[in-house]
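User: quick one, fold this
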Amino acid sequence: MLFYKRFINIYYRCNDCSFYPSWIYFNIWLYYIYLYYNIDNSINIILVNEKKIVFLNKKYRYINMVTNVLSFRYYLVSSINFFLGDIFLCPKLILFESIKNNIDYFYYFSKILIHSMLHILGYSHYNELNYKKMFYLESFFLSKLI
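Assistant:
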């Protein structure tokens, strides 16, 4: 299973967050997606604090508030561009939301990561049909982890 480690680049840019998952968890959480879609490209996962994610959200989405995740898909994937995209996660907010909603932290983190990876792969939830398809895939990949 750890074969996919080389495709998942994790950057810890969250000095004030001492509760983020290790790279092993990210590897496990994305393993079935990489296998299912036969992915040969890398993904960057960047863990950031609230200040940084607010900055990115405001800059790219024109929304001046904290969010738990932002996904940026690279649209040109070729032999030159080996990356699928960037996923920015805010572990502190994910922890807060998991406590608030009485959900296991690691389960909730994996759900958010899988959801954002599906966005990177081109899925959206802007209409009912796409929402159902994305929800099904998210549930399918989460079921592999249990």
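User: anything notable?
Assistant: Strands lie at 8-13, 42-48, 69-73, 83-89.
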